[in-house]
């Protein structure tokens, strides 16, 4: 006959629960005895019933087994807790050191700001003055570098503007030459203008372009004179 699977939960019937307790207790002690004999192990089992009655089994002296168990647990807990205690102590020391350093830095910063100087000696005041001078020198160097970089940027922008001005003047010169070539075809007030009578205002040339054109013509005449003189 195949036994059905027993559901593991509390047995509500008192009589059935007592019978099951007695059977399983005997079976547990039997298995413990077999384990101690077959494997040469030190086995101990302690059971308290619902009514508080003690049942125990041990393969050797129960007191020695309990003492051995207590010693092992004590050594185990000490070994487990010792690294954690060391770690906590290390953190506490590190935290105390950091707090001390922070306090020292705050005091030093207040002295650099000119506060709490009454307790400072002459040597400490000299050291503070020297450090302030060094810091001021570093600040001035950084400030000078920033100013220098800004000046270089402005100079570069100035060069770009000058180059742009030269390009515009050259462009105006070529426009002026083109206008002179077309001068006989221009008219002002319904009458034809000759090339010799064309003014800069008639063809829309500004004074800046006019000056540039004059310098261009003077340089051209100078080059022609040098070539003629050398010959």
From TrEMBL:
Q: Where in the cell is it found?
A: Nucleus
Q: Which residues form the MADS-box domain?
A: 1-61
Alphabetical keyword list: Coiled coil, DNA-binding, Nucleus, Transcription, Transcription regulation
- Name the residues that span the membrane: none
Where, if anywhere, are coiled coils annotated? 144-171
What InterPro entries has UniProt attached to this entry?
Answer: MADS-box/MEF2_TF, MEF2-like_N, TF_Kbox, TF_MADSbox, TF_MADSbox_sf
What biological processes does GO assign it?
A: positive regulation of transcription by RNA polymerase II; regulation of transcription by RNA polymerase II
List the PANTHER family hit by this protein, alphabetically: SERUM RESPONSE FACTOR HOMOLOG
* Full protein name: BnaC09g52890D protein
Q: Which organism is it from?
A: Brassica napus (Rape)
